[in-house]
Amino acid sequence: MPELSVVVHGPNTQDRLTGLLDSLAGHPHGDVEVVVAAVGPWAQETAGRHAADLLVVPLPEGTGDAAARAAGAARASGRWLHFTHSVDGLPAGAPRLVAERVAQLPDEVDVLLLDHIRSTWETTGLPSSDGRLLARTGRSPRLLDDVARSALRVTPLLGNRVLRASFWRAHEQRLTASDEPFAACAALLLADRIAAWDQVAYRHHVLRPESLPPATPEDHYALVERYTALLDLARERAATRPEAAAQVPYAVLYDVMVRTCLRTFARTALPDPVAREFFRRAADAAVRYRPPEYRRPSGPEGMRRTLLEENAYGRYRAFQAANRARRTTRAAVRSTRRRVAGALGDRRYRASLSRPVDPGLAVFAAYWYRGVACNPAAIAAKLTELAPQIHPVWVVTPENAALLPPHTDHVLPGTPRYREVLATAKYLVNNVNFPNAIVKRPDAVHLQTHHGTPLKRMGVDQMEFPAAAKGLDFQALLSRIDKWDLSVSANSHSTRMWERAYPSRFVSLDHGYPRNDVYYRATAADIRAVRDRLGIAPERRAILYAPTHRDYEAGWTPRLDLATLADQLGEDTVLLVRGHYFYDGTPSPLTALRRTGRIIDVSSYDPVEDLALAADALVTDYSSIMFDYANLDRPIVVYADDWETYRSTRGVYFDLLAEPPGQVARTQRELTEILTTEAWQDEGAAKARAAFRRRFCEYDDGHAAERVVRRVFLGESEDALPPVVPLEDRTPAPSPREAV
């Protein structure tokens, strides 16, 4: 029998379960059992990857947290239970420490309180406010009556307390009858003895409310009901104990209830009818459950409680407004000045916002206004074919305007027409974000296409990696993503990562990346034409080397000795070397090599899809080009000489070295050996590529642009769209050998 069972419960929300289970598998301990009450297929699939390390209890989609906890606990065999929600986490080594601590506790202790750290969609690793309370509670076994003033104010999470298994089973019906905060407090009220430990052993993650379904009025009222139910339990408990101290938990809980209700009322934006009803219910509870010897505090807090008990909603609002006025006057003045200045400087945009939205106008942009490219370009092309009544306008910078295809209607940032089209367009399409100042009109549609499948951490997931974030304003980022209506995805991995990295209420379009349609539609003649433009002789093997940007490097220096590699590969191989677009405008380190004819610098060549079509194989490190290139079912070699540094500084969503798209080289010697033998295209490489394609080429089948245009611009239902062609039935574009 293990000392501790960690009971993980819940669905794989925003892919949080993956990291939690990875951390548990990475720090096994003989006295710790992990039970996963996995809700839904994706949670079960995630848990299944660690089947040898844990016990999986599959539960149907929609199983609530209380039922999941009960199901997991029923299969647990440990002496103690540590309930861990699937969106939360455990610090490295925490289960081992907890197991050692509970093994030291006497039999009369039923609950051990722990400390935790907190993360949100904006911050990470925040210390809790419980340390002082835990210190007051003390490590020695105590009756709740003696430590209620501190213990009952500890954040009500099941994750920051460990329950003796026999205690849980004796009170299971009550501890699973309601939500987690109720169960957390009820555990203390039902316990014989409790102990505290000011060790951080839990990582609580608060999901962004905007990424969750909107709260209903009943959800808000449930807060009052939770505390009245706890007060009933505390009163029942006190009735069985004649000593005066038994009344203390009731009085403490009453004070916690009133404080929590007032804080919630002040900080939560509620419609007036809901706010009035919440206030009324809180007032009723404050009067009905008030302890006989209760005395209100003095000062403003006492006034708040008096008004609450009198159910004086109007006077409370007036009191609230008066107190806020002094704090907000200066901020309001500054804000007004900024708004006035912005309105004066952008008068045309504001005026245009008052005009009707133009249903026949669509604004397209890509890569911070670099030109016609990527998914927006593929969508615009299909739009011209299927919906010519909608006029596309591209936003491009002055330096890129000259490179546009002929007859491309475009605007330059900051010009009057730029403001006009952004204000009145029905459709705004981008593979990055539009500027912060762009207003999301209710009847406009913002379509976010993205520009790759994420290996590296994105969005709010960068908070834990300062080298990647580099001062990124996460609040501004969240404001921008709140304007998204639709998000295009190439595979279910991307769908989950976008929902995690960009927590908001957008709808995911699992239609594939439109830019990848060409990989199924290009002909042998198309491939011959591209290779001819690049100067690649038909008989030569072309290898595309496309490394990604590194946040810890100020500029780009190739991590390969390209001259030596070209010499070792021989005259029959040409290297197409593409630097990351972040380094546009910087001196190219390829200039000298380019003159030798041993490589072709294609860093400025667009579109990149042409380069992929022309290449017999791809060599990359961590660039998202690997996911797109996999559609061609051609060899991919990963050159990962600095994987550990990249992973620790940027953060990744999965272990590329464990799930690569082909052969992996850690040194240039290994890479040379792979490319000069048959290893780059052997059976092992093909098997790895096949698994990679199944996972990441899920929706790319040559019809993505059509699905997006029909769904977004023509308003067709999901059922009417061309279905995704199964992977085994797709025919990629011919290889350069086949195209000769």
Describe the protein's topology.
Blueprint: E1 4-10, H1 16-26, E2 32-39, H2 41-48, E3 55-59, H3 65-75, E4 80-85, H4 94-102, E5 109-119, E6 126-127, H5 131-137, H6 144-151, E7 161-164, H7 165-170, H8 172-175, H9 180-190, E8 193-205, H10 217-239, H11 248-267, H12 272-288, H13 299-309, H14 313-345, H15 347-353, E9 358-365, H16 374-386, E10 391-395, H17 398-401, E11 410-411, H18 416-424, E12 425-430, E13 445-448, H19 466-469, H20 474-481, E14 486-488, H21 492-501, E15 507-509, H22 518-521, H23 524-534, E16 541-546, H24 562-569, E17 573-577, H25 591-596, E18 599-601, H26 608-614, E19 617-620, H27 625-629, E20 636-639, H28 643-650, E21 663-665, H29 668-676, H30 683-696, H31 704-713, H32 736-739
Helix pairs in contact: 5-6, 9-10, 10-11, 10-12, 11-12, 15-18, 16-31, 23-26
